[in-house]
Write a structure and sequence with these properties.
Blueprint: H1 3-16, H2 20-33, H3 44-56, E1 60-65, H4 73-92, E2 97-101, H5 112-128, E3 133-135, H6 143-157, E4 160-165, H7 171-178, E5 184-188, H8 203-218, E6 223-227, H9 231-244, E7 252-257, H10 262-270, E8 275-281, H11 286-295, H12 298-308
Parallel strand pairs: 1-2, 1-8, 2-3, 3-4, 4-5, 5-6, 6-7, 7-8
Helix pairs in contact: 1-11, 4-5, 5-6, 7-8, 8-9
The chain binds flavin-adenine dinucleotide.
The site of flavin-adenine dinucleotide has 23 residues, from strand 4, strand 7 and helix 11.
Length: 311
């Protein structure tokens, strides 16, 4: 599909995601629509065998319980406890997996204090089990609070990472401000609908800024997660690190989403890189699914074929 057609489709899909009727319909028929291709079941028991199998194939794993925008403190506490249980299970079963979560899933929409308290409990558990956590990045209105909480967690527990989105104009200065502290940063293009006043409207600029941010991070102390399915960006990062003598493991890793661009990820493992599969699970998969559809409108065809396929 041409890029010209892709952009309005992306916008339409992300806008439809906010429509309660669409939400109800897709949620009802979701698994039949093929959400299972991107999601490892509904609970920890479903998730663990998928993570072990990914380890067996040479991948590290990032676990995410799907969900966001929680407005109930008891629910945010439940999510926090689930992440602590996950980290305990990884330690007990020696699964090579860490956790990545959204601060609005642990209470940021209720208050930054609650989000920090809950994220701190997860960080304490990660530290106790010699593991790590990463704060996903959400809409641009959450960037300041997320970076503030990352700094506190990193100072207190030393096992936190954060994310910068190359579609945001501000990300380069956010990265430069973090560089002196040897940050653990994941670079992504960005998955939300942002206005042109905050984000590059042109995909080529987003891609160029991605490479710029990745090279900047890789040229400094810290740890960089190059999270993309874009084969040309992956090739440029491979060239850059080889030319600079950055070792294939220890200073950076590649990351991809479960169910997407598997041949690319497999090739990287075969060439000796560390690759982390981001594997989500849980029943609240609707917004996640809509973002994956918006990234590649051709996936809509895949979903519709699943709906109408004879069973
Ligand atoms: C590990 C990981 C963590 C992420 N964390 C965040 C986060 O915290 N915050 C945030 O805003 N975003 C996050 N994202 C999403 C990211 O911002 C992009 O929306 C997403 O990665 C698509 O961009 P791309 O880099 O793959 O490049 P694109 O230019 O979108 O895609 C490049 C190529 O990859 C393939 N591809 C991409 N997406 C799909 C898809 N859905 N289905 C099938 N093929 C596809 C296609 O071949 C496409 O041509 C994350 C992505 C990854 C991989």
């Amino acid at each position: 599909m041409s890029e010209l057609l892709d952009r309005p489709l992306r916008t339409a899909i992300l806008a439809a995601a906010d429509n309660p009727l669409v939400r109800r319909g897709v949620t009802r028929y979701g698994m039949r629509l093929g959400a299972g291709r991107f999601v490892a079941g509904e609970n920890i028991a479903d998730f663990l065998p998928v993570a072990r199998e990914a380890n067996r194939r040479g991948f590290s794993v990032a676990a995410t319980l799907l969900g966001e925008s929680i407005r109930d403190a008891a629910e945010a506490k439940g999510v926090t406890e689930e992440y602590c249980r996950l980290l305990q299970a990884f330690a007990q079963d020696t699964v090579d997996a860490n956790v990545a979560f959204k601060l609005t899933h642990v209470g940021l929409d209720i208050s930054p204090e609650l989000a920090l308290e809950n994220a701190s409990r997860i960080a304490a558990q990660a530290q106790a089990t010699k593991n790590t956590l990463r704060l996903d990045m959400e809409q641009s209105g959450y960037v300041d609070a997320t970076l503030r909480i990352y700094r506190v967690l990193q100072e207190r527990y030393g096992c936190a990472g954060f994310v910068l989105q190359s579609y945001l104009y501000r990300s380069e200065s956010d990265l430069r401000a973090m560089l002196p502290s040897a940050p653990n940063v994941r670079i992504v293009k960005g998955a939300y609908l942002e206005p042109p006043s905050r984000a590059f409207p042109d995909k080529r600029e987003v891609d160029e800024n991605y490479v710029k941010l990745a090279e900047l991070a890789l040229s400094h102390e810290g740890y960089t997660a190059v999270a993309t399915h874009d084969a040309s960006i992956v090739a440029r990062v491979e060239e850059f690190t080889a030319a600079r003598g950055v070792p294939k493991r220890g200073r950076f890793e590649f990351q991809t989403l479960y169910g997407i661009a598997e041949p690319l990820a497999r090739g990287l493992v075969e060439r000796g890189y560390r690759v982390r599969l981001s594997i989500p699970y849980g029943s609240f998969w609707f917004p996640y699914l809509m973002r994956r559809l918006a990234e590649r409108p051709a996936n809509v065809g895949f979903f519709l074929r699943n709906v109408f396929a004879p069973r």
